[in-house]
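Fold this: LacI family DNA-binding transcriptional regulator
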Amino acid sequence: MKRSQITLKDLAKELDLSASTISRALGNHPAISEATTKLVQKKAEELGFTPNSIASSFRKKKTQSIGIIVPRIDIYFHSLVISGIEDYAYKKGYNVSIFQSKDSLKREQEITKILQNKMVEGLIVCLTIETDTYDHFKKFKRLGIPLVFYDRVPKDQDVNSIIINDFEASYKATEHLIEKGCKRIAHIAGNQFTPIFKARYEGYKAALQKHHIKQDPNLIGFTKNLNYEEGVLQAKHFLQQASIPDGIFCANDYTAVSALQVFKKAGIDIPEDTAIIGFSNYPISQVIEPHITTVNDRAFTMGKEAAKLCIRLIEDEQESVKETISIQTELIIRESTLRGHLN
């Protein structure tokens, strides 16, 4: 991927100022007016100019470093992705720097500034649930630093990405419940601002429609973060219905665990009365009883493919075509949906 370093001369030309004025403004020299200083510093940030001496040497000597931005390291999915990235990068002689945005757009924006100054050669990112603008990533493109997004990727943008087919995976999961005899199927959904969770909701709806099952709005539970506590609240809501669901498809395994525990405590037999499916194949899905049927999203493979693509783009400076790689998922069938009289 061809790189282009922004210089003092570039800034001077953009602002119609002398290079010496630009240099002084960047150093907050008292001889330069506050208005000019702010103007120069804003334009420098916009163009991705790095004023330190390391930046110039960076373009001549590789750092063998890749930056990673994840929403939360404590989420098993992201920890597996990181393992996949590190495993491949290490074999190729690259180091990784890991940052977590905590699902905050502001924090994500701040991290990109830090990574620019660290002069990484490539960047692998999973966006926050708040991210609806991508200007903070444009400076990396201007500098010729490869960007690879995984899982949560920019909407309607021409980017390199590693994804799964969330719609298809959710469709198959819901259809599995239907095949097990479920007719009143609930869904604990993720934040609908996030494309992957919207796709999972759409896959659920499509499966119901294909099999001529009417969707009941009382059996849809929308969450913000898909955490355990939100899953408990939604499961309790389902129990309050005149007719409880005989199947529940959850957008992740944390909420599937919530639903299973709430329903078992209420005396509901899993899976004979209510069958439950999760998503992501977290370790907890095999610990809790009964073991939870889930979708394996192959997070480790996703990380490995992200690293492979990123390093290829770093080392092939002429490559410019954007690539989307879709990882195949797998429905892992366990006890939470294996109804004895239907098998």
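Residues 63-164+299-327 form a domain with the Rossmann fold fold (CATH 3.40.50.2300). The radius of gyration is 24 Å.
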